[in-house]
Amino acid sequence: MKHNYMSTRRLFFTSMLIFAIVGINAKAQDSPKGTIEPDEMIALISSNNLDAFDSLAAKLHTERQQSIKELLNIFEDKKSSSYQQCAAAYYLGEMRASEAADFLGTNITLNLNEPVDHLTILMLSPVVEALVKIGNPSIPAVIRNLEQSDDADVRKLSLQVLYRIDGDKDISQLRLQKALSAEKDSQKKQARLQATLKELSEMK
Length: 204
Fold this sequence. Notes:
Layout: H1 2-21, H2 38-47, H3 50-76, H4 82-94, H5 101-106, H6 126-134, H7 139-148, H8 152-166, H9 169-182, H10 187-202
Helix pairs in contact: 1-3, 1-4, 3-4, 4-6, 6-8, 7-8, 9-10
C-alpha cells in the first residue's frame, strides 16, 4: 500500500509538470515548484531577449528529459498498477517522447484492466495511441514486433501502429519489404514478415 501511494503521488506530480510543459496548466499555484509556465514563455519571447531565451530553453529541455525519465520509471516498474502504467504511456505519447518507443513497443498490448466508474481516454489502448503520436521513431519497434512475435495481439496492434503512422498502405508495404530484404538469417522472421505483408494487403 505504501508503495502504491508513493507511486501514485509521484505520478500526480509528474503529470502536473507535464501539463505545464505542454501549455495546458493555467495556474502557477497548481504546478510544482520550478515548473515553467506558458505565460513565462510568451513574456520572454515578447521581450526579445536571446540570452534569457537560451536559459529558459535549456531549463525546459532539462525538465522535459526529467519528466520522460520519471514516466519511464513508472511504466517499467513491475509494481506499478495498470492505471499507472497506462497513464505514464499516455503522457509519453503526448510528449512525443521518442526515447520511449522501444519500451512502449515491448508492452504494446498493455490495457487498463482496473475497474473504473466513468469513461476515460485510457481505455483507448494507451500504448498504441502513444506509439502513433510518437510517429516515425516508433516504426523500428513495431517492425521488430512483427519480425519476432507470434502473439496475435502483438502482431495486430503493431501492424495497426505502422499503418496509422504512415497513413498509406503502399508506404507501409515498402517498409515491410525493406525489412524482409534485410533479413537474411532467420526463416522464421522472413515468414512472419511475409505473413504481415499479406495481412496488410487485406486491410481496408
